[in-house]
Amino acid sequence: MTVTTALPSFDEAIATYEPVMGMEVHVELGTTTKMFCGCSTAFGGEPNSQVCPVCLGLPGSLPVVNRTAVESAIRIGLALNCSIAEWCRFARKNYFYPDMPKNFQTSQYDEPIAYDGWLDVSLGGETSETFRIGIERAHMEEDTGKSLHVGGATGRIHGASHSLLDYNRSGIPLIEIVTKPIEVPAAVAPAVAKAYVTELRELIRALGVSEARMELGQLRCDANVSLRLPGDPYGTRTETKNVNSLRSVERAVTYEIRRQAAVLSSGGTIVQETRHWHEDTGETTAGRRKEEAEDYRYFPEPDLVPIAPSREWVEELRATLPEPPSVRRARLQEAWGFTDLEMRDVVNAGALSLVFDTVAEGASAGGAKKWWLGEVARVANERGVALEDAGITPGDVARVEALIAEGSLNDKLARQVVEGVLAGEGTPDEVVAARGLVLVNDDAALGTAVDDAIAAQPDVAEKIRGGNLGAVGALIGAIMKSTKGQADAKRARELILERLQG
Amino acid sequence: MPSISREEVAHLAHLARLDLAPDELDHLAGQLDQILGAVAQVTEVAADDIPPTSHALPLTNVFREDEPRACLPAEAVLAAAPAAEDGRFRVPQILGEEQ
Ligand SMILES: [Zn+2]
């Protein structure tokens, strides 16, 4: 069904209905090998070069569980304030789809390794209110292979003549984290959904169990949304898949609230179905209906023995938990002197660790933030890559800041140096040397430029003599132009005032 | 007594991607019913103090260390497949929903 009528605004939708959300997040663990075999999990290998009889599901092969993956699962569970199962099993989730060569996915069904926890999230900015998100369960499973659909117009499945499968990803350990129903004030629901995924990503990174990079599919999100009238039982929900950026989490939930409100207020009913999020159009489209959904016929995996983590092992793992991200953020925010809003910008940009590392290399926190959220973010955005892949290191940024501090660069030259580093021209010092970016601040060279500027604009000079300091900018502009931006503006100002007011 | 209907057998056959003719369905529904009946006899001896089991071995926590092992060569893997293209397994058109 295509909805062609205009959707109500978000405010109109929540004036009538209350949303209830549920988030399902899959985290690909950063283990060296797969969940049940010793194949490498390295990203970007030649297709089907990281496969073996186990992850190809060849007859007679037997899986063996990766100890580190289980430890990571337990640590994630503990960090989410979950109970850790004393005994649990894997189960087979049976379905026929070529992304799983075994024709089942090894997962956990009614015995997750971790259950019944919570994660506190806050929206930052003007309100410091905290929302406690209940965690239903976190369980272990394995990733699927990657399909390439050939012959269709857009690489999608519809219209494709056939498909090509790469099983390098098949069998990489996944942890699926499922929330309890999230019931928060309607106005903040989409923001809370985004804040939850953001906080979870920070937690996963702090644990060191995954880089949790959404653009690489290491953290993937499905968003369940339903609406109800205040006081009513839960409404029928839809599950929006393919929500693969933090921004999309908020947008997809907002869209689905508006779409469902339009259906309900026109007397329609919500169909329980999966929906696909489209980043480009900002809409969801209908997918599989639940009544058509597969019957997965779960049963305990006969090739694997149960996992029974001893309480000693669990406590050992608990002792390895890092400082919670919210505590770390509060500590760093105070040390860096950032406002709530500045800190939120850094966190949302995924730049916390980069700023931290840049400060560790000697830069000021403000200087580090300025580059990572400014020039580097702009270039990374243009290229569609993460900040850490833009081509500049925390050490480079700290070096640029040091060159500014010692007076070798002004802001304008520093920007050119950063541009050069991002363009692959080398380290900051190499870019300075190659581009000849030297700040003109010796009084002889600068003095000539100052004298020329005064001579060229006698009317401006007269104003300054008369006490109009606002006019100094016009002369500095001329000096910057004549020195191709390489003048030390502060020293130039001093020289102008010496000459005209001294 | 267990009782499995012809419709349930047809549904399971579909899930298992088995193309069964109507007479086969009739035949199998009856047989499966008998098999389930035989298995159900276990419940007559299973007492409340006997926990259900899914495994014959009294083992837990069998792990391997997170250390890489050799993979199969891609050429060998693809040579065993019915069809391959561009270093990948080639499969027929996938009908239905994207996963
Ligand atoms: Zn393998």
Outline of this structure?
By secondary structure, chain A is an alpha+beta fold.
Provide keyphrases for this structure.
heterodimer; A: 502 residues; alpha+beta; Arc Repressor Mutant, subunit A; 9-stranded mixed β-sheet; 17 helices; 38% helix; 19% strand; B: 99 residues; mainly alpha; Histone, subunit A; two-stranded antiparallel ribbon; 4 helices; flat; binds zinc ion; GatC (chain B); asparaginyl-tRNA synthase (glutamine-hydrolyzing) activity (chain B); Aspartyl/glutamyl-tRNA(Asn/Gln) amidotransferase subunit C (chain B); protein biosynthesis (chain B); EC 6.3.5.- (chain B)
The gyration radius over C-alpha positions of chain A equals 28 Å
Ends distance of chain B: 39 Å
What binds here, in terms of ligands, is:
zinc ion
In terms of DSSP E residues, the strand content of chain A is: 15-25%
Per CATH, the architecture of the domain at 6-44 in chain B is: Orthogonal Bundle
Q: Low-confidence runs of chain B (pLDDT<50, min 5 residues)?
A: none
Helix content of chain A: 25-40%
Main sheet: strands, sense, barrel of chain B: 2 strands, antiparallel
Structure summary, number of beta strands of chain A:
15
Instruction: Tell me the structural class of chain B.
Output: mainly alpha
Termini separation of chain A: 79 Å
- What's the gyration radius of chain B in Å? 22 Å
Number of helices of chain B: 4
Number of domains of chain A: 3
User: How much strand of chain B?
Assistant: 5-15%
Assign the CATH class of the domain at 6-44 in chain B: Mainly Alpha
